[in-house]
Structure formats: structure tokens, C-alpha cells
Amino acid sequence: MKQRVPRLLPWLDERKPDVVCLQETKVSDEAFAAELGDELASRGYEFAHAGQGQWNGVALLSKVGLDDVRVAFPGAPGFPDPAGAPEGRAISAVCSGVRVHSLYVPNGREVDSDHYEYKLNWLEALRASIADEAETTMICGDYNIIPTDTDAFDPSAFVGHTHVTPRERDALAALEALGLHDVMRDRWPDERIYTYWDYRAGMFHKDLGMRIDLILAGAPIAERVQASWVDRKARKGTKPSDHAPVFVDLDTAPDGDVGPVVPPPSRPAKVAAGSVKLPHTVAD
């Protein structure tokens, strides 16, 4: 978060979102408030943060209410001790009648590792915790799961890695089975859409990315969606995040139905299967 403040504040001024979900802040609650509290208040934002010092960390910013704030969720496992305190990976609050979750799903690191099992257990606990309120819920953030092969620049590049395994995709499908809609894919079922591009090997400029940042919404909320898009502009410039913000407009779309990715990539690379390797194994 400290590195991104020069990017975050101008972005808030430009886009003026009502609710913002942030992940991987990597600061304590006190440091978040000291660094951003006054700046957010001057822009009309309330905020809630679940920090973990130099690791993880999630936040919610809202201009439309921030009620009944919940840190983590019932049954959230800890790591490495499942019975221990949960990591700073989840926070939720009611914003204008909708419970909004900001999530940083565990990465999983290596298939069948302790981290991988933790990821699956964490997702199952999340599913159980929201089952009774799915209709009024939006769960937003970095899922560290590529939902389908369409959501990766080359599915063969991910064979043997996390993010694409059947068990991870089944865990995501179990969330959707509660009646949650992947609002981006509902609106743009066949488009090339990525939200993350590795910093290395020119992956962003070649548009060799993956879609791992998702917004899932209960059916009554999904029916209100007027636009959903990825703010690719925010991935450009000096010291950007390797993720781009995902937008959803409910009821009204100030920018119109602008397309799935804004601005669209100028010349996305066309790659043969297996011709491009991942620059490195994605890790927490």
C-alpha cells in the first residue's frame, strides 16, 4: 500500500468509485490509518482495514456506508495452524444494503502442499459462511484461481501449477452454486479479459495475462449490473500494481457500457500453445 499511494489517490480522484476493495496492503491497521486516513476522509470515504503487518492485508473504502464490519469470517482457518488466528485475508461490511467482501484468497503455492490444502479449506469455510446471505452479497478480490481456460493466455503454460487445478475450480464453482454470478463473464462471455499480468518478460505489453480478480454477486445484485470492465489504464505507468482494478456499475454506468477492458490492448500477442512459459511461479 505504501508504494501505491501515489497511484491510488489520483485513481480515486479520476474514477470516483463508491466502494473500493483493496488486497495485499501489507501494513498494520494503525499504519493504514496513519497513511491514508486523512486523505480518504477528505474524499468522503469511510474505511475498514484488516492488517497483518508486512503480509496480506485487506481493506474496504466506501462513500455509501460501512456498516456491520466483519473481519475474517466464521470458521476461517489460520495458517499453519488451522485453529490459529486467521490471516488478514477477508473483511466485509454492508454498503448501501449490500454486504461487500474484500478477499485475498490464499495462493496455494504448490499443488498438494500444505498451502494448497489451506487454500481449499479457506474457500470451503468462506462458502459455508455466506451460504445464508448469498443473495445480498458481493465477494470481490484476488481469488488466485483462473476460472476457465479462456481466462488464461495459454492454458498449457499453467499445467502443473496452482490456479487451474480441478479442485480449485471446483471450490470456485461451489461458491457460484450458492447463486453467485461472475458478473464480468455474465456480461462478456466470450471476450479476452485479463486482470493480472506478470511484471517480467513484457507480459503486460503482449497482453499475456490471466483473469484471477473476480466479482461474484447474488442474483438480485447481478440483475442491477449496467457495466463491468477492467481498468487496464491503471496497470500502466510508474510503479503500477501487477493487477488492474475490476469495475462493476450497479443501476447506472457513468462511463457507459465501455467494454470489457479499458483501454483495450493495442496488439495482443497471438501465441501457439506451449510457446510461452510463465516467467516465474506465482507466489504469495
TrEMBL record:
The record marks H243 as: Interaction with DNA substrate. Mg(2+) binds at E24, D142, N144, D242, H243. InterPro entries: AP_endonuc_1, AP_endonuclease_F1_BS, Endo/exonu/phosph_ase_sf, Endo/exonuclease/phosphatase, ExoIII-like. Its cofactor is Mg(2+); Mn(2+). GO terms for biological process: DNA repair. It comes from the Bacteria. The record marks N144 as: Transition state stabilizer. Residues 8-243 form the Endonuclease/exonuclease/phosphatase domain. Probably binds two magnesium or manganese ions per subunit. The active site is at Y104, D142 (proton donor/acceptor), H243 (proton acceptor). The record marks D213 as: Important for catalytic activity. Keywords: Hydrolase, Magnesium, Manganese, Metal-binding. GO terms for molecular function: DNA binding; double-stranded DNA 3'-5' DNA exonuclease activity; endonuclease activity; metal ion binding. Belongs to the DNA repair enzymes AP/ExoA family. PANTHER family: EXODEOXYRIBONUCLEASE III. This is Exodeoxyribonuclease III. The lineage of its organism: Bacteria, Bacillati, Actinomycetota, Actinomycetes, Mycobacteriales.
